Amino acid sequence: MKTSKNKLLKTIGIPLLILGVLLFGISRQQLPVDTTQSAIIKANREDIWEIATDFEGAFENSNPAHRGTEILSEPKQPFWDSLRFYQKEKVGGITAELDGTVYDVNESRSFRWKAKTIYYFLGMEIPVDEGGTFRIEETTDKGYRVSHRIYGNFKDTFGGRTLSWLMESCFGMLQSASEHTLVELEYFKEQLEG
């Protein structure tokens, strides 16, 4: 009888101990997403601005992972501080819905955005604070360096840290976000350069 208890403890206890150590380690460190992509686009600054800020048109079409982008504010144009938008997309195969706001608009040069985002993963709704900075900068080459920095922060809780680790470790969220952003910039380049 004692042997079967020892065997049961080893069978269940060791995996539980390993799981506990992993969860403890995971929960101690948050893995935020923060990436910047850029492309040199040989077009005039105003045309780049126009395509990048056409959220319901060119921006929606810039990535097949976009599943709907809508300006919620009126008027929809020109692009302005406090403009609200909604977007549904997939990043790394995971569906996300963003409720966002544009701010720090510097026409034909840059804008920032922030969003309350919900990722739908294994039946869970995972809230993430996301944002980004879009820039059009002069270069020594012909054209402009167009960059988009994006970031995402999970809640600083045990659950948030665990989910951030899981989504990065198992689904490569940082790499997926980086590739997603580059696809958008390459689309702008292709549309403007022909």
Please render the helix and strand layout as text.
Elements: H1 2-28, E1 33-41, H2 45-52, H3 55-61, E2 66-71, E3 84-91, E4 94-106, E5 110-121, E6 124-138, E7 144-154, H4 158-171, H5 173-193
Antiparallel strand pairs: 1-7, 2-3, 3-4, 4-5, 5-6, 6-7
Protein name: Polyketide cyclase / dehydrase and lipid transport
InterPro entries: START-like_dom_sf
Radius of gyration: 21 Å
What is the CATH homologous superfamily assignment of the largest domain? START domain
Gross morphology is elongated
Please tell me the overall pLDDT: 88
* SSE arrangement, N to C: HEHHEEEEEEHH
The helix content is 25-40%
For the record, give the distance between the C-alpha atoms at the N and C termini, rounded to a whole number: 78 Å
Q: Give the strand order of the largest sheet, numbering strands 1, 2, ... along the chain.
A: 1-7-6-5-4-3-2
How many β-strand runs?
7
Report the CATH architecture of the largest domain.
2-Layer Sandwich
